[in-house]
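The instructor's notes for this session suggest beginning with a concrete chain rather than abstract definitions. Hand out the sequence below and ask the class to guess, before any prediction is shown, which regions might be ordered.
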Amino acid sequence: MKELKILAVVVFLTAVVYIGVEPYAHTKLHPAVTPADFQFQDLEASTKVGDAARGAETFMMAGCVGCHGLESQGMPFSMDNQMASESFGVVPPDLSSAGYLYDEAFLAALIKNPAKALMVEHKFSDTNPHPMTSFYGLGGDLDQEVADIVAYLKSIAPTSMTNAEVFDDACLRCHGIKYDGGKKMTTEADAILAYMGTIPPDLSTMIRARGHGFLETFINNPQKHLEGTSMPRVGLKQETQLQVVDYMESIGDGKKAERERVGLYIMGYFVILSIFAYLWKAKVWREV
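After discussion, reveal the predicted structure:
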């Protein structure tokens, strides 16, 4: 009977902590935010259907290749691109995989108004414009021209990419991940410091520090967790964002499956041990 009373007290105190205290602490350490929005509802929706062939022409005529490479199309980063990057302070990304990585609505909005699409309007103004210039069209229907460019980028994009490839294209320009062979960010530290105001962190153990759920919403919209942050909205599709998080988990928490499996073995061991301990106690006390 005494043991049952002790057990009841332990269960009661554990329940108070788990049901009453833990949720409160969790709300303070991890404030609730709205789920990730992969429809990008804050951006203007386009009803235009893009044409990839026209988009290729528009892409060239608009001068996009003056800043961006298209290595998959035989137009890698060149000296002209280097001159543009020096004037911007950062290296514009190669767009070979943009159609695979990013949502169509995000890409369209990014072409028309980069600061708004990236959610960094608080950092830039008319006197301090975003390094990527807005596309104002070639004299025709602006929305149609943008839709054509997006269609072109989708047409040249790969049909599949590994998790590591998605991470490298989407994140490695600003973030390193040293636990995977010492990968360093591809942008020079001085340039990224001037552009962002700080050096973005290495992401090797970020999955352990923040968790899967935090990263899902943070990548989709950093402002939800860090209002005023310099990190832009990445604009990945739900599938490609999951690839990024899965990759980070494989690097930063590669023992998770093994740890969970061992945990089950340990729980089973204690269950069996408890049974034998109870039988031994019953046998000993039966004779007292």
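Then share the key points. Residues 160-254 form a domain with the Cytochrome Bc1 Complex; Chain D, domain 2 fold (CATH 1.10.760.10). The chain has a mean pLDDT of 89.
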